[in-house]
Design brief:
This protein is an alpha+beta fold. The protein has 4 helices and 7 strands, in the order αββαβββαββα. It has helices spanning 2-9, 67-83, 137-152, 207-213, and strands at 50-53, 56-59, 98-103, 109-115, 120-126, 167-172, 188-193. The strands form 3 sheets. Strands 3-4-5 form a 3-stranded antiparallel beta sheet. Strands 1-2 form a two-stranded antiparallel sheet. Strand 4 (109-115) and strand 5 (120-126) form a beta hairpin. The longest helix has 17 residues, at 67-83. It is globular and about 85 Å long. 16% of the residues are buried.
Length: 225
């Protein structure tokens, strides 16, 4: 799960996790081989297969998600924190945190996975017997995640991706999902790829009547007369 969320956090690159097998005192035995995992490099030029980092050479991870789709998805996941089941994470007072709670059938597993641009953490609460925990992700897993991330991110600046040039904010009708004209009030703002905008909400009364009546966007003659 953490590996999947890492793709969302690192800009869309498929990285492979590596594990700490054991911790040894110096001199007990030969140290483990130093890991050189594939790394995400959003700013590296296309066509290269490796990059230098901190004096070492690492292979580059392949990009598997385009940055436009990823930016929009990340914005949706921020809504989970601000208005959804992950609201408890607002206690961290960080605008770069996104994530998602999860609870499996019969409350056998409680999850929370969340990240900023530098760090991913996933918490699972469950029983080896696969019996119900009686807990939800927001109540069981999220508090553990918050305790970890509070310390892990302490003193670090917020890390959010830059918006791609071809991702734009547009105002849409909350019910139809269609674009609103500039002179139509209300609606909600959402992100879109510039080449994949919805159609405009059709005007259901004549523009001249709207202007004379002052009832723009009502869509009915009854509202005018």
């Amino acid at each position: 799960m953490a590996n999947a969320y890492a793709v969302l956090a690192n800009g869309g690159f498929k990285v492979t996790p590596w594990y700490i097998e054991r911790v040894m005192h110096t001199g007990e035995q030969e140290p483990l081989a130093e890991a050189t995992p594939d790394i995400a490099c959003p700013k590296c030029p296309e066509g290269i297969s490796e990059a230098r980092l901190d004096g070492k050479t690492y292979p580059l991870a392949p990009r598997v998600v385009d940055p436009q789709a990823l930016y929009i998805l990340r914005d949706m996941m921020r809504d989970v924190i601000e208005r959804g089941t992950g609201r408890g994470a607002l206690e961290l007072n960080r605008g770069d945190i996104v994530g998602k709670t999860g609870t499996t059938n019969d409350q056998r597993d409680a999850w929370f996975s969340g990240f900023n641009g530098n760090l991913v953490a996933t918490v699972w609460i469950g029983k080896d017997s696969n019996e119900s925990t009686g807990e939800y992700g927001a109540q069981a897993a999220l508090p553990v995640w918050k305790d970890f991330m509070r310390e892990a991110l302490k003193g670090t600046p917020e890390s959010v991706p830059e918006r791609p040039d071809d991702v734009v904010t547009k105002r849409i009708d909350a019910n139809s999902g269609l674009l609103l004209h500039d002179d139509q009030p209300g609606g909600i703002e959402e992100l879109f790829r510039e080449d994949n905008l919805p159609e405009f909400e059709p005007r259901r009364i004549q523009r001249e009547l709207e202007n004379r009546s002052g009832s723009q966007g009502t869509g009915t003659y009854e509202a005018i007369f």
